[in-house]
Write a structure and sequence with these properties.
Two copies of one chain form a homodimer. Chain A has 204 residues and is mainly α. The first copy, chain A, is built from nine helices and two strands; from the N terminus they run H-H-E-E-H-H-H-H-H-H-H. In chain A, strands 1-2 form a two-stranded antiparallel sheet. Chain B binds a DNA duplex (30 and 30 nucleotides) through helix 2 and strand 1.
DNA sequence: CTATAATGGATAGCGATACTATCTAAGTCA
DNA sequence: TGACTTAGATAGTATCGCTATCCATTATAG
């Protein structure tokens, strides 16, 4: 398969494919001559993953780290999630106060060393954002967040496929990011349903 | 309070504040002369909301729609959430197939007319993204998503403050967007905790 | 076996976004 | 009076994710 055919089948323009190769998102084709290369199904699949990530709002740099993790995952399973999260998480901010985040995380079963600091920083940043806007999660709501999120994460981790290493890696790495838009979209639907039920519209 | 003081107290540069006024995110100060204006606490609060939204990844245009909703909310409470969601949701895509999304939404208690199409389109887009990447949510996981998300939404809607209209509006509008980073960050922590418990690290 | 077209590689340009800098005329304040 | 600030306008900047154009090389159709 030449680049033009890859472009047509994926409906990604050929110059964009070249760009992804330049940026290290997509491996080069196998060279058949100094100015010729051949692409195969693996390029097709990888290209679809790249597009899905980019369309989910993942940047080029983050996507590169994601596919590097897919291609070269850590040997131990307990390091895989951390690697996937590291690909899409800004580096730790030392100036951030992690105490509130740690207190929250404790409600998820967190203990130091069970989870890396970068991810905890994410919680701290989110809390800071809420606080700066003068918004606070009600005391009755936060426990529900923790409990429900924990339930979601448990189901996701329990669902890690065991048939092959590759499928487990792909599930963990892609699922940690690609499921986010789905969860947020489902939340909006659920909010509207719940709101409709509570404020049962007098309509007209 | 003059613009320079507003800038100093909010640590947002004065030119940026001018830019927000130009873009309609922040109302003008009250004019004391043709080239002078006075800002007050309401500008300060609004500015903090704007920064929180923008730092959560909301664009200028979406932020403008959000603050317009805050300033001029729909009269009926059951329309408020829809207005808030509309501010940050792309317009409905007619070419999208909503059947899979509707089936999922049914698991949240959705019925036609309980929730607008734009939000359902969001679910459809998310599903499409997953599918294009060759990723699928395991059959055991999806029900947990639906159940847990519904629980979250119910708690959030039950937590709508009833003391004043303004606080209800601010809670619903800001909460629908600003809580997203928190939920995603908590999910990452929970995933790492759950993963650590399942693949209890044999370490080195 | 030449003419046309496509390829890989490199470089430069584009359009959108979120600012940022500069200028001017008008106004404040010591 | 005179240094400083302001609003408003315009233009410039940095980043991002492409996109367009070039070139020498190479497949391929007639």
């Amino acid at each position: 398969m030449k680049i033009s055919e890859l472009a047509k089948q994926s409906s990604v323009p050929a110059p964009t494919i070249k760009y992804y190769i330049r940026e290290g998102l997509l491996p080069e084709g196998t060279r058949t001559a100094p100015t010729q290369a051949e692409y195969d199904e693996s390029h097709m699949r990888r290209l679809r993953v790249i597009r899905a990530l980019i369309e989910s709002g993942v940047s080029i740099a983050e996507t590169r780290r994601m596919v590097e993790t897919l291609d070269d995952p850590p040997a131990q399973p307990h390091l895989l999630l951390g690697a996937a999260h590291a690909a899409v998480t800004p580096p730790v901010d030392e100036t951030l106060d992690l105490t509130a985040a740690a207190r929250l995380a404790a409600g998820l079963g967190w203990e130091p060393e069970k989870c890396d600091d970068a991810v905890l920083c994410g919680v701290a940043r989110a809390l800071q954002g809420l606080e700066k806007a003068g918004f606070s999660v009600p005391d009755e709501v936060m426990p529900v967040y923790l409990e429900s999120i924990r339930r979601i994460a448990d189901a996701e981790i329990a669902g890690v496929p065991t048939d092959s290493v590759e499928s487990a890696v792909s599930y963990v790495v892609l699922g940690s990011v690609l499921a986010e838009p789905l969860l947020l979209a489902l939340r909006r639907v659920a909010q509207q349903v719940s709101s409709a039920e509570r404020f049962s519209g007098p309509a007209s």
